[in-house]
Amino acid sequence: MQSSEETTTTKAADADARAATGAAPAQDDGAAAEAPAKSKRTLAVSDAAVQAIRAQLAKRGTPEGAIRVGIRGGGCSGFSYVIEFDDKPPRSGDLVLEFAEQDKPTVRVFCDKKSIIYLGGSVLDWEKTLMYQGFKFKNPHEATRCGCGHSFTVA
C-alpha cells in the first residue's frame, strides 16, 4: 500500500481520536510519539465521519480508495474547504490517517502539508440534520465563516 514515496503518518490522528473512533494506529517508520489532543500537525476524524467515508467509498465502488481533505484559496471568505476522492497512493509529505475496524475496509484520509497548516487541530465530522447532510470541519483556526459554511478566514 505504501509507495516508494515517503509519507508523514500519524498514529490515527492522535490518542484522543483513536479512543473516540476506535481507530487503529497508522504504520510509521519513525519513533512512536503520542500527539497531544488538538495537535497543530494533525486533524481528528469523528466516528460518524469515518462511517460516512466508508459508505461513500463503498457506494463509489472503491473501498480501498481514500478521501483527500485540504483547503484552497477562494470562496467568499478567502479559503474554501476541499474534500475529494483519491484513488492514488499518498503524495510525499502527506499526512495519512488510517481508521480500521474488524471485517471492514480501512478508511484512509490524506491531507497535504500546506493544508495542515490551516487544518491542524481540526475535527472532520459528519453532520445529518433535517436541513443539511454532509461533512463539516470544526476548525479552531477559523476567524469567520461564510454563510454557506464552505468558506472561511483565519486569524
Regions with little confidence, pLDDT below 50 for 5+ residues = 1-37
Distance between the termini: 38 Å
Structure classification: alpha/beta
Task: Indicate the overall shape.
Answer: globular
Determine the strand fraction and express it as a percent band.
35-45%
Number of helices: 3
Order of helices and strands: EHEHEEEEHEEEE
**Main beta sheet: strand number and arrangement?**
7 strands, mixed
**Strand elements, count:** 10
* Nearest-integer average pLDDT: 77
Q: Indicate the percent of residues in helices.
A: 10-25%
Sequence of strands across the biggest β-sheet = 1-5-6-3-4-10-9
How would you describe this structure to a colleague?
- The termini are far apart.
- This protein has three helices and ten strands.
- The longest helix is centred in the middle third of the chain and has 14 residues, at 47-60.
- It has helices at residues 15-21, 47-60, 116-119, and strands at residues 8-9, 44-45, 66-74, 78-86, 95-101, 104-111, 123-128, 133-138, 142-145, 151-154.
- The strands form two sheets. A seven-stranded mixed beta sheet has the order 1-5-6-3-4-10-9. A three-stranded mixed beta sheet has the order 2-7-8.
Summarize the structure.
This protein has 155 residues and is an alpha/beta fold.
Sum up the structure in keywords.
single chain, 155 residues, alpha/beta, 7-stranded mixed beta sheet, 3-stranded mixed beta sheet, 16% helix, 37% strand, globular, disordered N terminus
Please outline the helices and strands.
Layout: E1 8-9, H1 15-21, E2 44-45, H2 47-60, E3 66-74, E4 78-86, E5 95-101, E6 104-111, H3 116-119, E7 123-128, E8 133-138, E9 142-145, E10 151-154
Parallel strand pairs: 1-5, 2-7, 3-6
Antiparallel strand pairs: 3-4, 4-10, 5-6, 7-8, 9-10
